[in-house]
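job 3f2a | input accepted
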Amino acid sequence: MGEKPDKLPETAFISLTRGEELNFIQLFVNYVLTLMVMSQMKKSPGLIYAELHGELKRGKGNGQTMTIWDGKLMTKFRNKSSHGFAMKFFGWVIHRRNTKTYYLTYLAKGRIPSATEAANIIGKYGKFYNRGKLARKAPPPKKEEIIPSQSIIIGNKVPIQ
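job 3f2a | predicted structure (161 res):
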């Protein structure tokens, strides 16, 4: 949503959400909830940029959202209206025995990651639910750990150089 900005305010936060190994029904419900949230997000003060990525291969899919907010205005949006409802419902849909989910919010420090970089960052630092159970809390990355020259690996995927 919107144009990807060249510069970010020093107070910009990035929020990442990713679901992996979702079945077709979970992907469909996720899509509907995401559309509902996105329509309301457009009206929210403080939203700088939003991006949604997904893929479906052999009946399984991944979905990832990245939003960038000026300051901590994201928390007002996150806990209210359609997003508040979606968060409650999302848990029932996404935190299942067949999925892996990740959540992370961190200070942008002047840089917006690409979709691939975001997937790697959230995979390494995000709050991680494996098959519906919390497997790891979310330590935010340090600036030197998210610069483009850093190689970050998730699972057996190829590192970003």
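job 3f2a | The longest strand covers residues 12-22.
job 3f2a | closed
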